[in-house]
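Q: Structure tokens for this one, please.
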Amino acid sequence: MMRRLVRETLSADPDFAVVGEAADGRAALGLMGELQPDLTMLDIEMPVLDGIGTLREWALAGHGAVVIVSSAARPGSELAVLARRLGAASVVGKPSGAFSPDLRDRQGDAILRAARRAVGLPAPLGAEG
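A: Here is the predicted structure, written as tokens:
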């Protein structure tokens, strides 16, 4: 459900095309290598290989920007600082914990701003911050 909400949030912006989706960090690294996306959205809490492990491996030879959307790495937290140190362009907190069905409604604008900034696009019209 969380992947669907992030996908729908990005797909609502005509400047983004979602080209892949992975259920875990190891699969994400495979797709990142294969598809070479300009932007990857990661969570910290993922099976097989967590977001920090994925980010560590991506940092060695990855392509494109990474934005973290996670309840475990709220902006300013120790995990968020580590994620930024490892190369994440931005960290956006989930509003209601790991399972945030209100993600698009409460953080959709923040996710789009972070994604657009990460790939060098201007903020969407009417967006503040």
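A few notes: The chain has one domain: 2-118. The beta strands are 39-42, 65-70, 90-93.
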